[in-house]
Amino acid sequence: MPAARAGDGRPDGAITLRFLVAPSDMDATGQTVQAGRVLEWIDKAGYASAVGWSGSYCVTAYVGDVHFARPIAAGTIVEAHARVVYTGRTSVHVFVSIETAQLGGREFSVATHCILVFVAVGEDGTPREVPQWEPWSDGDRTVRERAQARIEPRKAIQATMLALNGVGAASAPPTVFRFLASPGDTNWGGNAHGGTVMRWIDETAYACAAGWASDPVVAVYSGGINFFRPIPIGNIVEVAARLIHTTDRSMHISVAVRSGHPATPHQLSLTTQCISIFVEKGASGSAVPVRSLPLVTPEDVALDSYARELIELRGAMSAIPSRLASTVF
User: Fold this and answer.
1) What is the pLDDT of residues 177-207, one digit of tens each?
2) What per-residue confidence (pLDDT) applies to 322?
3) What does the pLDDT look like over 93-131, one tens digit per residue?
4) What CATH superfamily classification does 161-315 receive?
5) Average of pLDDT values for 76-89?
6) Among 10, 17, 95, 110, which Cα is nearest to 50's?
7) How many CA within 13 A on the CB side of residue 103?
8) What is the pLDDT of residues 137-162, one digit of tens each?
9) Residue 79 forms beta bridges with which residues?
10) Which residue has the higher pLDDT, 48 or 318?
11) Domain HotDog ACOT-type spans what residues (predicted)?
12) Helix (H/G/I), strand (E/B), else coil: 277
C-alpha cells in the first residue's frame, strides 16, 4: 500500500539520529572514527526506520557497499538519516546516509551512505509480511530502481563469499578473536545487535591489516555483510579475518563470524560474513604502497581469485549517485 505522509511531508519510516562524536569513538590513530562505530550508527538508524515502517521487530539481513571516503573527527556533529526505499514481501530495504558538520558551522556533508536489508519478524519468530512502500518523487524512484537492481548481484556476491569461506588454510596467518557474547551486546530481541557484530568484524579486520602493514591502517570499505543467523547472548563468538588479496595500495580482508553454545565449543556455525578493505597511511595521511601478498599455495591462489571476482561483481552493481544521498531526505 502507498506510504502515508507525516506532517512535514516525509514518508513514514524516515528518521534522523543526531549526536556528537566522542573521543571513545575514535580509531587507534585518533584521527577518525572507527569504521566499526560508523557501521553501528548505520545499523541503529536503519533498524529504527525498518521497525517504524513494518510495525514489528526486525533483524538485519544485509549491509552493502559502505565506503569510508573521508575522516570523521572527534567533536563533530553526526546525522544518521534513514528511510525506506524498497519493500519485498517480508523485507524492508533502508537507505542510510551519514552526514557530518563542524560544531560551529552546521554545514552538513555526506560522509558515507549505503543500503541495508531488514527482515520483519513476528512474535513467533518467523518472517511476517510488511506494508508495501511506493515512491513519491523522482529521487525515490531512482533509489528504488537501484535497490532492486542490486538484488541479483548481491546473491552472486553472497555465493562467491560462501565459496571463499570454504577454502582451507592459506599461507597468510589469520587473525582470530574468540569471546562470549555478553549481556551488554544484546539487542531488543535478546541476541547480539547487528551493529555490534559489525564492530567485532571491523576490530578483527583492523588487527589483521595492522599485522601485515608497516604504517597505521584505516578502513576504506566494508561490504557484502550477510547475516545468516542470530548470536544468542552467552554463546561463544569466533571472528576470523584473513588477508586474501593485495593491490598496490590496499589490503582485502575476508571476515567470517561463527558462533555456538559453550557446551559444544568445536561446533560453531557461520553467522555473518564480510569483506573489508584497508589502506596503509603514510606520514602525509595518504595511502602508501603495501607489501604484496605472495601466492604460495593453491589456497592462496583460490582466495586471490575469489577476491578478484568480488571486485568485478561489486563494480557491476548499480551505484547510488552521491547527490541522491543529500536529496532523498
Assistant:
1) 999 999 999 887 889 999 999 999 999 999 9
2) 60
3) 999 999 999 988 888 999 999 999 999 999 898 999 999
4) Hotdog Thioesterase (3.10.129.10)
5) 94
6) 95
7) 8
8) 888 888 888 889 999 999 999 999 99
9) 18, 99
10) 48
11) 11-124, 171-284
12) strand
Q: How far apart are CA 189 and CA 199, in angstroms?
A: 19
C-alpha closest to that of 193 among 4, 39, 10: 39
In this structure, what C-alpha cell is assigned to residue 165?
Answer: 569461506
Angle among Cα 320, 325, 326 to the nearest 5 degrees reads 150
How far separated are the first and last CA of the chain, in Å rounded? 21
Q: List phi, psi (to 5°) of 237.
A: -120, 130
**Identical fold at 15-151+320-327 and 161-315?**
yes
DSSP SS3 for 278: strand
309 and 223 Cβ atoms separated by less than 8 Å: no
Pick the CATH number of 15-151+320-327 from 3.40.50.1110, 3.40.50.300, 3.50.50.60, 3.10.129.10: 3.10.129.10
- Residue 17: in which H helix or E strand, if any? strand 15-20
For 271, the grid coordinates are 553467522
Structure letter (DSSP) for residue 231: -
The b/e string for 162-198 (b: 16+ C-beta within 10 A; e otherwise) is: eebbebeebebebbebeeebeeebbbeeebbbbbbbb
Mean pLDDT, all residues of the chain? 91
| Beta carbons of 268 and 236 less than 8 angstroms apart | yes
Distance separating alpha carbons of residues 189 and 227, to the nearest angstrom: 15
More confident residue, 176 or 188: 176
Strand partners, 294: none
Distance CA 329, CA 327 (A): 5
Q: Distance (Å, rounded) from C-alpha 327 to C-alpha 85? A: 13
Can you give the pTM of this predicted structure?
Answer: 0.92
How would you class 72 by CB atoms within 10 Å of its CB: exposed for 0-12, middle for 13-18, buried for 19 or more? buried
Q: How many residues are listed for the chain in this entry?
A: 329
Number of Cβ atoms within 10 Å of the Cβ of 52: 18
Question: Does residue 238 contact residue 188 with C-beta atoms inside 8 Å?
Answer: no
